[in-house]
């Protein structure tokens, strides 16, 4: 209920104000302090403030309806509300501050890294191996500017730069040799548990891999045949080859390097060195050449290490070694229930009985025909290829002669030839002499390359 005007006037005088507009313009907290200072009752204080707000509202409404210019204001082109709201809540940018992303900003990556560097230097003493200045001496000379902050650099490039600065002090720079070349020479002879790094060899391997080629395909180019070093054909770097040829102490195990490089089992390595135990003394240059030849034949013809051993002039089996290859070839299953074995005291007779249309020694020859997938005439040709003699009727049943026959079969298989075609090809290669497979390792390797 509205109070009389006299009452409102009395209350205004009580707090030393002249109009209700003065009350309405005051914030409520200031008005409340003013009323309490004059000991005004709470009911009168609240009533006077409500009357002042109602009076102000009615006065504004009356003025709005009486002013003819106010309806035209709505038609004016006003700025968007979002802009007005932003300008109201935020002050204009002070151009005394740096722009976002500047290297001078306290919140830039450069400032963060600088602060991080100052804190990290205190983690360890300056004489400690873990000191930041020892681990990353390049940070001292790093210039913090806008160009360095905006320039992108790959992690690989940064790591390469750091590693180079680290190992540059450890290599002996050779006179008249660039530092990079000196580094590659140092790494090619560096001894570790892994094979040494050889830059030229690895570069060639990388190029061939990108072009989906291998070293063996280069042999098909006549212009390159005499110029290519056959060492890459063995997939062993010159650095590792040099290590394997050296005479070193027992503490440095050549066999371990060979295992890692070739991936062969210990049984295969034992078959090559002809022994139960493998030690460094058995890796002489001759044996090493044979091992590399096995690796070469395995990769060139896509055959197993056991088969590559035969092509490298190795016997099919040794005493006291695993005879799995021998039994798989000749006794899988045993012919007529009898196991075929090698025994130098027995002789395989190749005399052919025309009346019975079979060999006189049918027991052994039948096993050989089944193992080598040949007929009577092809088996006789294989027997002739085992010797330089044109007339051979019998051979001893030993590992050497059986390996010769198997080598002839493998040589035909890897070149996709029949026995007759192989004999014809050997005759063409050397028409002056009787075709045969040599027993000398070097001569055998030359013959295989010629075929």
From TrEMBL:
Gene: tcdA
Protein name: Insecticidal toxin protein
Domain of life: Bacteria
Record lineage: Bacteria, Pseudomonadati, Pseudomonadota, Gammaproteobacteria, Enterobacterales
InterPro entries in alphabetical order: Insecticidal_toxin/plasmid_vir
Alphabetized UniProt keyword annotations: Virulence
Pfam families: VRP1
